[in-house]
Structures are given as C-alpha cells and as structure tokens.
C-alpha cells in the first residue's frame, strides 16, 4: 500500500498508512506477540499461554504441529528473538514432523550420553495435537518405563484432529489422550476454560515431576479464541510459583506416598500458592441433585456447568461433575464431590466415531472409571449410564440442555424449553461472514482490536474457516461484555451480522444466528434497490420480515476513495459496521482505528462517503409459494487458515535404472525403504489362492464364483462383517498392447509420489506402474478431458475435448461414460494429437483403487483362510468389444497358488453383542457373502455351548437351479438347527415373479417375534433397489405389532421407528 495523501494536514503533508497484518488465528487478534508483553491484564489466546508456560519452564520444546495449526508459532518467534527462559538460557525449540517414530528424537535427547546432567531436573515439553499421540505412543511408553531417571516431561495436547470419514473436517479429540493416559499410566489434566489454561499448564508441568503428564485443551475454538485475562503470570511469577510449589511438596517422603496421594498434596500446595480452590473434580448445580452428569473436556466442562447452574435456579435437581484430572483417577476425591442425593449418574463420554456411538458393546473410557467408583459407594442402587458422543459433536447450550433432558426424570419440563447462559442485554454479539479471498477479510480482527481498547469492556474474538464452501468462507464471532463471560460456542443471537458476499446467503442460513430486531449488513457492489428482490431469495426476505431484521446494503462502488483504491474496502467495511453497530465510536475512535488499520484522513473521508455507500433498505416479502431449502446454520470448521489456491503439481519424473539402483544400494542416504505396496495408505499383506470354484453352471450367463485365500503366516485377522480389499492389477496383455502402440519403454524407471501421501516416492518401471498404479483402463471424468485438451496439437481435437467439458457436451459426455464406457486408453487412442508423456499420464490419470468385498467366512471356523463370493462384471459395448470390471476380471483370472495383495476394512455389518439376540438377514445374489460368515459364527458359538438366538435368512436370485448360492450349506445349517427360517425367493422360476420382500411378508409373524419381541437385528446386503420394499415390510411388522400390543393406541409412526432402530444398530444396510 502506498502512502495516502493527508489533504487536511496542509499541502504536501503525508501520513503513513497503517496496514493490519494477520499472522495466525492462534495468536491474539492474529498478530505477533512479544514474549515480554505476557503478564497482567492483557488479551491472549489459550494456545499462546500454553506456549509461554512451555517456553518459560522447559529446557527444550519438541513441537509437532500441522502447517495451519500453528501450535508452535509463538515459541519459534521467541526463540528467533533470543528470548531466555526462566532458567537463564534460550529454550531449544525443535519443530518436527508427525510420522512413525515421531518421538524418537525427543527420547534420544533425554537419554543421550552427551546430555547435561545438571539440567536433569528441568522439564522438557511437547507441544502437539491429539492426531500426533498415536505416533508418539512408542516413545511415551518407553519414557514411562524409564521415568525414574528422566527429566519431567509434559505434553501439551490440543484436542483437534482431521476426520476423513465425516463432513466435520476438524474434530475435537479427547479420546486419544484418554486412551493413552490409561494405557501407559500417564497423568492427564484438562483445562476447563481459557481463564484457567495458564494455571492448568503450570499444574501439569508440576505433576510431571511425579509422572509423565498430558495437558489437554479444546484445540478448535476455545484454544484459539482471543480473550481478556486479568491476572496473567509473567515468566518471573511463573518460575517463582513453580519453585514454591515444588518446595512445599518436596518435604514429603516420596517412598511412602503413591501417585494419587502425591497428586492430592501437589494440588493442595498449588491452591495455597495461588489462593485458589481448584479440585480434581468440580461440582456445579443443585445442592441435592437427583441426576448428575460427569464430563471431561474444555467446552463440555464450561457449558455443562453453566447450564446446570441455570437449571438448578429453576428448581431442576440436576448437577454436573467436571473431571479436571483424569489420571491419576482419585476415587475418594470423586466420591467426595458426588452428592449423596444422586439417584442417577450419567457419563458424557467421548468415543471415536458414530459407529462407536451405535455399538452397544463399546463404552467410553470415562464411564468405566465412574462406574467402578460409584459401584460400591452407595448402600442403594444408583443407575450409571454412558451417554456416548463422537468427536464430530459440536456442543451448544441447546445440545447440552438435551443431554440434561435425557438424564433428568423431570425431563426438564416441555420440549421447547431453552436455557440462557448469557444475558443478551449486557452482552453485544456480532458475526462476520466473508470469503477467504475478500480484501476485507481482516476487518473483523480490526474491529475486535478496536473494541478491546476500552479497558472497561471484555472482548472475545473467535474465527473459523470452511474451505469447502463457496471456495473458502470465514466466520468471525465477536462478543463485547461489561464483565468476564464464558461462551465456548458460536454466536446464536447476533445484534449485527456483516455478510461480505451474496454467495454466502445462498450457502448458509445466516439469519438463523441473528436475533429478532437485529441488523444485517450485506455487501452488494453496484446493486440497485429495485434489483434486490431478484438478488435475495424468497426465504431470506421472508425471514427478514418475520424477525424484523433491519437490512443495510454496503456498496463499495458508491465510495470514491474505495473505487480509486480497492484495497481500502476493508476500511469501508470496518466503518460501515461501526456506523450500524456502534455509531458512538465513529467520531471518538477514528484515531484509534487509524492506528490499527488506515490513516485518520482516509477514515474521515470514508465516513463522509458512508452517506451514499451504506443505506438501509426495505425488502418486499414474497407472495409466491416456495419450497424452503434447509441450509446449514454454521460453517464446518475444516481449517485454521484460508484456502490456498496455488496448486503445486507433484514431482513425477522419468529416471533411468541407475537412480533406482542407488536407492537400493544406499538406502539410508536416499531415504529408501523396502515396503510392500508403499504407495497404499493401508496395511497390506500378500495371501495365496487356496481354492476357486464356480458356483453357477458353465453355460449360465452370470459367472459367480467362490474364492478362498490361505493367510499363511501373514498375521491377517478379520472380524465378522468386515470387508477384504483386493489390490487388483490390470490385465498384462492389455498393458503390453498399450505400451506398444503408445511407444513407451516398459523398462524405464518412473518415480511417482503416492496419491495418498505425496511425500512417499515410489520407484517403478513403466510396465509395473501400468500394472499396479495407473488406472489406464478405468473410466475418466471431465477433468481428464480438460487436461487432455491441453496436450492436443490438432485444433479440432482440442475443441472437441473442451466442448465435452461444457454444458453443450453434457449429453455426449454422458453417452461416452455410461453407454460406450470409454476408458482413459480409448481417449488417448481416439485423440491421437494429444500425446502426453508418461510422467504426465501418471499425473492426469486416476490411480487404481482397491475394491472391497464382504468377507464370506468366520475366522473362528477357518482360522487360516478368508473367503469371498464374487460375480464377474462383464458387458459388450456398442462397438461389440468385451468389457470387464477390473477387479472381478483380475480375481477370475487367478489360479490356485497365485499371490494377491489384500487389506482388511471395518464395516457396519456386525453381529449383536449378545449371542441370544435373533438376527434377520436378507441377501440378494453375492449379498449373501457376509451372512455366510454370520451363520458360520452362530454355528461356532453353538458348538461352544453358548445359547444362540433365532437365525432368519432370506435370499433372492433369479433361478434356483443356476443361482442357489451355497444352497447345500444353508440346508445343512437348517437341519442342524442353526438357521430357524430359510426364505428363498427365485424371481423367475414361476410365471409370477416372487421377490425377497414377498417371502418376508409371508413370514411376518416370525419377523415380529424375532425382530420386535426378542429385540433382534435386521441386515440387508446387495443392490439398492429392494431397500424401499424390504423396509416397507419391516414397517408393516412394526405397525401390526404395535396394534397387537396396544389395540386402543394411535397408529405408530413406523418410519420414525425404523430410524430409531437404525440409530440402535438394529437396522443395518450394506448396499451398492
């Protein structure tokens, strides 16, 4: 930004333009922070405080931070500036990668022969996220065994991880810390709020003098929220308090005190030092509660405490116990705070994912400890339940209220009841929505910093990024209060919401978080009032009217200053927001704003231009009927930084054999490893074909075959219902033909990065790559047509390829993909002027993927083998060419003794935890595979003398003579009393077609008994088409059973009951 002329200051006068620069969302207001400024009343983030404690009280800090997490951004800056720690020298900072063996360097440093033994008493710190703990586990395990001769070690763990299996993106992960602490005997301390973070980081460091300790905290919101802390400890006070507490407990003979006893004494000394009343377990709520909730976690502790206090004021007999220190788990301290009036104890326990939530056989870690502690504490029966939630769960006051409603006998009155933990009359709340690439993206941070200049107020700023919506969306919430508040959740009742782009209101229900009678500022460049009705959706306009929300349009084209210099849009947004939300600051705080971002002259000029650039409008409501679209009310926080739009192509290089030879000869120097299929992101093993037999006649048009693999000494294990991943290979003859006509050297070496991990480079010959890596005979998407067009030298071919990527070519593209089933190789042959080199082919052609098939055997019955049931996928294209499914063709071509690379994948198809629970199975064609494993397992259980429940098997295919798959086995199991009902539906063996749902309907009474009366589980595996019909039969069973049990009752909502059964894991589909 060039210097702006300061016209009012006289001729030739200039004033330097102050540009606000954000470094990281983990820093207060995103700005750099000097080490010496931490102390007393100041604005900080929890992550900054944790880094300060680690830097001040450590000999060395080992940091494992993902690039955008910035868990170590402050300590690296302080080290570069030469800041000294509390022990008088510069703290060592090692920023390391999260990978296998991650803790080896830290462990090696601690036990190095060269280690300075005079520093053995000085703590060492680890700064990481919970995603790192699995990689640190081996090192921490060794450390725990050798701890008596090691330095104190504290791991400050941000409870955040990526989730590839859900839409959440980033998830709050306490499970990893809970599991590691329990398994390895580590200490585990949790910060319940940003205001206690520094104290808890210090306490965890002190506890590390007893056992290696993990200090965990919310890593998504609370850990990165900028907040005002009144009495922050500077380095000197930190060190003095650290020494004072250690001295107070050093007088105790360690030999006569276990870890739990030393923990209690340590906390007492800590409280004495700071004049606090911290407890291992904190209780909040009613004095004589009947229902008590036990929680662990930052947001969980803060919200449940506030909601419990609010409910108890209304007379609800509920309370909550926050577990501040999970390990060592001091049962006496827990029972001391547990009210004697408690009749019900519920544990709000985190588990890994939704599958674990649904699995009745899995319990949360916290539940096991609470159950053990409470079991013998009462002379009466006290119910202890486990309310599991997954890492994806985002807690709000409303969702916490639902939990209390669930555990309270009173059910907290009516369903519509809400709870207010913030006095909205005293707390002003603002929300900013904008695109990452907006020139005004820093405006919210500037506003937050401006508001923080009022020392009588408390400002809280939190930021999140959704890089998968609208090309990258940022949401920033600001709360401004007269007093300290705890609100670890998104703003739900904004006084003012600022929206930086029209596309955002098309992707999110922004008005949902704006309170009635609030205001919305929408940036719409160049839009006239008469065009607003076309620009704004009917639903948006209707909500504006219903909630009486004032709409302001901010138009940058109406500001001459912004038109001349587009980068000044951020100043316009800041001043426009202040005019709507805080008009009192427009005149009194211009100089303060200019000191943060801008100049006084520019700000004053833009304020004058706001008369035309900012206008309030009345939007007419829509009289037309419209179908409301349910939009998400908040972003999915999947990043801590804006979306990076620069795409760097992976280094795919052709090399000669000498390069590969050097890597094999000098593995350590070249970082080479001998690994089975290193490019794959899953554990693989090589198994051998033991048996392969066709299940359908040779002259039948469908080739269905049974294939069994010998596991040998691979160590492969699999559970009932899991799938076997086949890492297939392309047909050798077709690969050789492609190499020949494309003019490739099959023996040339190609080094390619793995698509699942770009850091893993794989050396292969061209031939090997086409056999195992490159899906050259797969079906291309539009992106390949687009990429191939860039290589075409013939203009007509280039135009044809480009047209296929547009709307005009949509029907032709669909025909090519679905009718002609064109492959990558076909396109390279068709468009001969587009002849990319092989390293470009590797780059633009999709990699081969494993194909997964349900396992058709129980390892209890066949411990050294695994079976599959496969149907060969084949067809003839319009040109008369035989086409095949890549994986089934590969499997069909295998001979006994052939080697195959496989991996095991978990599945939702699991047997009920109780052997006596009935199972009802419906399988079509090869969908019978997992049920063969189910029946084998039930037979095994019965052979062991266990009581088993009913087994109902419904199977469907076209003809009994040709497709009665495993028919003799089913009948043998029926004769043996394993299968109690065998419903066979062969659709084409009689004039009237009979399907699987017809056989189910004929035995509806059996389904009612097994499924509903005996609480069995239903499973369907096969194609998707019968799902509605089969589900309809189950709904009939539910309705008939309900009427039989309750003749006078109203008709039951059977669809809702199916959803309930699905949530309970008793209605399971695996369809394709």
From TrEMBL:
> Could you tell me which residue ranges the FAD-binding FR-type domain spans?
682-913
Q: Does the keyword Oxidoreductase apply?
A: yes
Cofactor(s), by name:
FAD; FMN
Q: Where does the source fall among the domains of life?
A: Eukaryota
Any one Gene Ontology molecular-function term assigned to this protein's record = metal ion binding
Q: What is the lineage of its organism?
A: Eukaryota, Fungi, Dikarya, Ascomycota, Pezizomycotina
Q: Name one GO biological process term.
A: sulfate assimilation
**GO CC field:** cytosol; sulfite reductase complex (NADPH)
Reported EC number(s) for this entry are 1.8.1.2
Give the reactions, separated by semicolons, that this protein catalyses: hydrogen sulfide + 3 NADP(+) + 3 H2O = sulfite + 3 NADPH + 4 H(+)
Keywords of the record, alphabetical order, are: 4Fe-4S, Electron transport, FAD, Flavoprotein, FMN, Iron, Iron-sulfur, Metal-binding, NADP, Oxidoreductase, Transport
Is Manganese there in the keyword field? no
Parts forming coiled coils: none
According to its UniProt entry, the function of this protein is described as: This enzyme catalyzes the 6-electron reduction of sulfite to sulfide. This is one of several activities required for the biosynthesis of L-cysteine from sulfate.
The molecule here is called: assimilatory sulfite reductase (NADPH)
Pathways involved: Sulfur metabolism; hydrogen sulfide biosynthesis; hydrogen sulfide from sulfite (NADPH route): step 1/1
| Signal peptide limits | none
């Amino acid at each position: 930004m060039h210097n702006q002329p300061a016209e009012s200051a006289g001729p030739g006068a200039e004033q330097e333009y102050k540009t606000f620069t954000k470094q990281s969302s983990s820093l207060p207001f995103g700005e750099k922070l000097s080490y010496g400024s931490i102390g007393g009343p100041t604005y900080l983030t929890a992550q900054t405080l944790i880094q300060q404690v680690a830097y001040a009280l450590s000999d060395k800090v080992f940091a494992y931070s993902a690039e955008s997490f910035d868990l170590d951004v402050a300590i690296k800056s302080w080290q570069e500036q030469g800041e000294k720690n509390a022990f008088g020298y510069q703290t060592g900072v090692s920023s390391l990668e999260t990978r296998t063996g991650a803790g080896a360097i830290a462990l090696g440093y601690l036990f190095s022969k060269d280690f300075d033994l005079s520093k053995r008493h000085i703590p060492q710190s680890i700064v990481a996220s919970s995603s790192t703990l699995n990689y640190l586990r081996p090192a921490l395990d060794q450390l725990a065994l050798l701890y008596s001769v090691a330095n104190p070690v504290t791991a400050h763990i941000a409870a955040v991880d990526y989730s590839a299996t859900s839409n959440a993106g980033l998830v709050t992960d306490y499970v990893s810390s809970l599991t590691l602490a329990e398994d390895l005997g580590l200490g585990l301390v949790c910060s319940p709020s940003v205001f206690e973070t520094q104290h808890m980081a210090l306490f965890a460091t002190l506890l590390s003098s007893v056992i290696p300790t993990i200090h965990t905290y919310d890593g998504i919101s609370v850990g990165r929220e900028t907040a005002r802390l009144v009495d922050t400890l500077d380095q000197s006070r930190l060190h003095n308090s650290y020494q004072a507490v250690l001295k107070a407990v050093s007088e105790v003979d360690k030999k006569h005190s276990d870890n739990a006893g030393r923990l209690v004494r340590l906390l007492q000394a800590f409280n004495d030092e700071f004049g606090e009343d911290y407890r291992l377990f904190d209780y909040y709520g009613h004095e004589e509660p009947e229902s008590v909730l036990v929680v662990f976690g930052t947001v969980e502790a803060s919200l449940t405490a506030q909601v419990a206090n609010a409910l108890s004021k209304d007379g609800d007999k509920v309370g909550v116990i926050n577990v501040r220190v999970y390990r060592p788990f001091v049962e006496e301290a827990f029972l001391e705070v547990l009210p004697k009036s408690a009749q019900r104890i519920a544990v709000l326990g985190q588990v890994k994912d939704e599958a674990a939530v649904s699995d009745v056989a899995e319990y949360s870690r916290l539940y096991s400890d609470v159950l053990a502690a409470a079991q013998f504490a009462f002379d009466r029966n006290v119910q202890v339940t486990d309310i599991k939630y997954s890492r994806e769960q985002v807690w709000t006051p409303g969702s916490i209220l639902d939990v209390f409603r669930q555990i309270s006998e009173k059910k907290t009155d009516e369903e519509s009841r809400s709870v207010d933990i913030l006095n909205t009359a005293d707390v002003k709340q603002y929300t900013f929505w904008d695109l990452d690439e907006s020139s005004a993206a820093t405006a919210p941070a500037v506003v937050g910093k401006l508001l923080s200049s009022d020392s009588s107020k408390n400002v809280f700023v939190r930021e999140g990024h959704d890089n998968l919506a609208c090309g990258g969306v940022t949401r920033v919430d600001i709360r401004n209060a007269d007093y300290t508040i705890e609100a670890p959740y998104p703003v739900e009742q904004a006084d003012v919401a600022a929206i930086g782009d029209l596309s955002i209101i098309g992707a999110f229900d922004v008005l949902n978080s704006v309170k009635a009678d609030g205001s919305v500022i929408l940036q719409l460049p160049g839009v006239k009032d008469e065009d607003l009705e076309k620009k704004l959706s009917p639903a948006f306009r209707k909500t504006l009217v219903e909630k009486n929300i004032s709409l302001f349009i901010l138009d940058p084209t109406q500001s001459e200053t912004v038109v001349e210099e587009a980068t000044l849009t951020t100043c316009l947004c800041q001043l426009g927001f202040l005019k709507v939300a805080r008009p009192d600051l427009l005149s009194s705080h211009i100089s303060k704003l200019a000191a943060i971002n801008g100049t006084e002259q520019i700000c004053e000029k833009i304020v004058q231009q706001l008369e035309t650039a900012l206008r309030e409008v009345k939007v007419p409501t829509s009289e037309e009927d419209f179908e409301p679209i349910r939009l998400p009310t908040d972003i999915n926080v999947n990043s801590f930084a804006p979306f990076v739009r620069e795409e760097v192509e992976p280094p795919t290089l052709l090399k000669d054999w000498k390069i590969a030879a050097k890597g094999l000869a000098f593995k350590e120097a070249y970082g080479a490893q001998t690994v089975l299929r290193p490019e794959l992101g899953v554990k693989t093993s090589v198994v051998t074909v033991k048996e392969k037999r066709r299940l359908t006649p040779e002259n039948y048009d469908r080739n269905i075959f049974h294939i069994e693999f010998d596991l040998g000494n691979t160590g492969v294990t699999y559970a009932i219902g899991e799938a076997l991943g086949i890492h297939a290979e392309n047909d050798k003859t077709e690969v050789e033909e492609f190499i020949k006509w494309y003019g490739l050297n099959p023996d040339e070496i190609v080094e390619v990065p793995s698509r699942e991990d770009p850091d893993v480079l794989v050396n292969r010959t061209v031939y090997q790559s086409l056999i195992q890596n490159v899906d050259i005979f797969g079906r291309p998407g539009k992106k390949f047509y687009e990429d191939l067009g860039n290589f075409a030298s013939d203009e007509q071919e280039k135009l044809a390829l480009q047209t296929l990527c547009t709307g005009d070519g949509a029907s032709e593209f669909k025909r090519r993909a679905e009718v002609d089933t064109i492959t990558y190789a076909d396109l390279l042959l068709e468009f001969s002027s587009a002849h990319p080199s092989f390293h470009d082919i590797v780059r633009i052609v999709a990699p081969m993927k494993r194909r997964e098939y349900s396992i058709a055997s129980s390892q209890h019955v066949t411990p050294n083998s695994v079976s599959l049931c496969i149907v060969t996928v084949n067809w003839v294209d319009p040109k008369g060419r035989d086409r095949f499914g890549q994986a089934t063709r590969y499997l069909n071509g295998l001979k006994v003794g052939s080697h195959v690379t496989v991996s095991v994948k978990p599945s939702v198809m699991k047997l009920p935890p109780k052997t006596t629970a009935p199972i009802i199975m419906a399988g079509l064609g090869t969908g019978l595979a997992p049920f063969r494993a189910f029946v084998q397992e039930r037979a095994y259980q019965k052979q062991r003398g266990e009581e088993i429940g009913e087994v109902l098997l419904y199977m469907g295919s076209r003809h009994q003579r040709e497709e009665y798959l495993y028919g003799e086995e089913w009948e043998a199991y029926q004769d043996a009393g394993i299968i109690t009902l065998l419903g066979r539906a062969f659709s084409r063996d009689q004039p009237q077609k009979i399907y699987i749902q017809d056989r189910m309907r004929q035995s509806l009474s059996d389904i009612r008994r097994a499924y509903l009366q005996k609480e069995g589980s239903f499973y369907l595996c096969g194609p998707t088409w019968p799902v509605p019909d089969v589900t309809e039969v189950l709904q009939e069973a539910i309705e008939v059973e309900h009427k039989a049990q309750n003749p006078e009752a109203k008709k039951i909502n059977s669809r809702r009951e199916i959803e309930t059964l699905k949530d309970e894991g008793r209605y399971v589909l695996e369809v394709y």
